[in-house]
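Researcher: I've got a protein sequence and the SMILES for S-adenosylmethionine. Could you write out the 3D structure of the bound complex as structure tokens? I'd like something to compare against our soaking experiments later this week.
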Amino acid sequence: MTVFSVKYSRGSFIFPSAQPAPHRSFTEEVTVLNGFFGKLATGGRAYVMGDPMVPNRKWHVYFASNESIFPPPRMVTLEMCMTGLNSESASVFFKKDDGHNAKQMTKLSGISDILPEMEICDFEFDPCGYSMNGIHGQALSTIHVTPEDGFSYASYEVMGFNPGAVEYNALVERVLRCFKPAEFSVAITVFGGHKWADSWGRSAAVDGYASRSHVEQEIPGGGFMMYQCYSSCPNYYSCPKAVKVAAPLPKQIMHCWEEVEESEMCCAVEKKGFTFGEAR
Ligand SMILES: C[S@@+](CC[C@H](N)C(=O)[O-])C[C@H]1O[C@@H](n2cnc3c(N)ncnc32)[C@H](O)[C@@H]1O
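Model: Sure. Here is the predicted complex with S-adenosylmethionine in place.
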């Protein structure tokens, strides 16, 4: 089998200095990935997306593809990273003496309602924690939850579905309902053109959350990525819908250095295929 395309993506590490090789820096990760995929037609492309005004909230993406197989089929990937989970929502992911298991966590949390068609294989950790993988036709999803107070975290990822059949904003809200995070980021990758993507090319407008940054980046083969960060508003009722505060920000001028360190100062190495997304 030949490789069609590869994408590696992650947010900023909460504990960067605790990461083992090759995750000590994005540069190191890219070097390893290029060893495997750098010879594909597009070469390895690496991006660090984020607003320099919002520290430690960057989206790191490595992408390489065999361009000869483009144009690619229509495809959307959604990735959400959530921190500061509401303690009541997080408590669902602790095992209880009454045999509270992964199936109950899936139901009680609302995970089963995110995309009800998904067939879910779920797993509970001891004494807490939860992971699941879901499948429906060609669509795949995965969730991982670390519910411990102080460093709580949940991730949600879905790909391979027909974007026309799923409304972006409503999907984001169903995910948030499960975890009620204090902060979250959402990254979408769209192949096959903007226009058809309907709701998928726009900022999510989420009650109770304000958008802190919005960055877009074109990728080879007609794809584009959008990365947004949100924070919950202390006063829910006076919080404007995120779409109002997500109006385009003034363009930021990015500075580039030769190395991208996990200190997340920002930016990229142009000549090696790094680019830094432009904040809007
Ligand atoms: C959801 S798991 C992380 C799963 C990871 N992404 C994976 O696929 O292996 C993280 C949560 O499970 C808990 N946990 C309990 N036992 C664990 C184990 N053996 N390995 C990883 N996490 C464990 C952690 O404390 C944390 O709350």
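Model: Residues 26-37 form the longest helix (12 residues). Confidence is low (pLDDT under 50) at residues 242-280.
Researcher: Great, I'll pass this along to the crystallography team.
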